[in-house]
Amino acid sequence: MTESTDSAHRTPVVTRTAEELRALRPKLGRLALVPTMGALHAGHRSLIAAAREHADSVAVSIFVNPLQFGPNEDYDRYPRTFDADLLACSEEGVDVVFAPPVEVMYPDVDRSREDLGQIVTVDPGPMGRVLEGEFRPGFFRGVLTVVNKLFNLVRPDVAVFGQKDAQQLAVVRRMVRDLCLPVTVLAGPTVRDPDGLATSSRNVYLSDQERASALALSRALFAGADAAASGPAGVLAAARAVLGEAVHVTPPVSVDYLALVDPATFVEVDGDYRGEAVLAVAAWVGETRLIDNVPLTL
Ligand code: AMP
């Protein structure tokens, strides 16, 4: 926005409705959106910094999307830290925060219904049924539906997503392509704590001991990446060796999946594959489910 001068410490305009956004949009020029569920950390901040490089104004949406949570997942206990998030957005020079109430995103919200009253949704297709989609049925339908709504409400030219959620990034890119959405999708690399753990809003759930166990995920991925020259079987074997040991630590790491996939389709690569790939893992440590991945070249 042109009227702002001190970009480091201005307070973003907080919007909660479609009408407020519509009134603001003409003043924002080329606009980049960083969609988030709040509880902002260094990973979100890096996406905001990347967004600023590509637009005149940056919008951050903060919305814990009920449609992407399964009935037994952590929707209710998901961390909600709006005041700290607003401060982080101020520090990062964000122009607009869009923090809608559930009723703005889901006007017919009905919590007694599995579909929450959202009748028309975006079908992610086969990419939405593998890996994360297999373990979290309905997750990518919920993600694509809310991302589509956010694009329509905020009308960004650019949207920035994290490599941390590599399958989400791939599915969103596919939606933009298949539905001809007028948005350029950019990706930011995964931000990690110094010990290797990918920063995540869910890391606050981890006790010190659980956090120590959780380091097996990134260690396994790095071991896999180090073995890239030995081909797909070598990558998977190196990562599996680390995860195999992590089953015996306290508390143990319980793996949902480890897979080496094509980054665009999320189809598992075969034994003689060469080219870009993503090594992805999901695992439980105690009551917390973590995901992580590394891009690599075979
Ligand atoms: P979330 O708030 O978890 O829905 O994430 C919002 C956006 O931040 C998504 O595009 C994520 O992929 C991205 N993100 C989350 N964690 C990280 C991280 N450690 N590094 C980079 N991007 C991240």
UniProtKB/TrEMBL annotation:
Major site of localization recorded for this protein: cytoplasm
Reactions catalysed: (R)-pantoate + beta-alanine + ATP = (R)-pantothenate + AMP + diphosphate + H(+)
Residues forming the catalytic site: H44
Keyword annotations of the record: ATP-binding, Cytoplasm, Ligase, Nucleotide-binding, Pantothenate biosynthesis
Annotated localization: Cytoplasm
Subunit structure, as described in the record: Homodimer.
Protein name: Pantothenate synthetase
Miscellaneous comment: The reaction proceeds by a bi uni uni bi ping pong mechanism.
Involved pathway(s): Cofactor biosynthesis; (R)-pantothenate biosynthesis; (R)-pantothenate from (R)-pantoate and beta-alanine: step 1/1
Residues given in the record as (R)-pantoate binding sites: Q68, Q168
Top EC class of this enzyme: ligase
Native source species: Thermobifida halotolerans
Assigned protein family: Belongs to the pantothenate synthetase family.
Annotated residues for binding of beta-alanine: Q68
One Pfam entry name: Pantoate_ligase
